[in-house]
Amino acid sequence: MALKILDEHRAASVRRLCEWIVPGCSRVGPLAYVDALLTAMPAADRAAALQAIDVLSGADSADALATQARTPEFALVRALAIEAYYSDYVAPDFPGPGAWAEIGFEPPRAVDLERDWSWLGIE
């Protein structure tokens, strides 16, 4: 999958940050989802998100990241990580399971849903 916004350094940061913020997130391939969200954002919002990723990318552990937990940058990246996981998206070639199965979210209508991720523009 070719990324549209994230370069190699930021992609590695997003993978790491998502996993530290939402443990287990790496099973669903959050990078594709976050990159697609960034692609669809207005330029100013995208710039703010990229800056937040850059600010947090210096953390070398989950404990180091925790020192940033009350910052606006952390809040923004946390929102991206949570959405990437709890939307129930699973990137192509990733094993999953999606968050809904993992947390047992199976209301009668939700299990019948045919999820359409085409709006993300991911092939």
Your description of this structure?
By secondary structure, the protein is mainly alpha-helical. The protein has one domain. Helix content is about 55%, strand content about 0%. The mean pLDDT is about 90.
Outline the fold blueprint:
Layout: H1 8-21, H2 30-40, H3 43-56, H4 62-66, H5 72-86, H6 99-103, H7 108-111
Helix pairs in contact: 1-2, 1-3, 1-5, 2-5, 3-5
Stretches where pLDDT is under 50 for at least 5 consecutive residues are none
What radius of gyration results from the CA coordinates? Answer: 14 Å
Number of strands: 0
In whole angstroms, the N-to-C terminal distance is 7 Å
Q: What structural category do the secondary elements indicate?
A: mainly alpha
Mean pLDDT: 91
Helix content bin: 55-70%
**Topology pattern, helix = H, strand = E:** HHHHHHH
Number of helices: 7
Number of domains: 1
Q: What general outline do the C-alpha atoms trace?
A: globular
Sheet having the most strands: none
SS strand fraction: under 5%
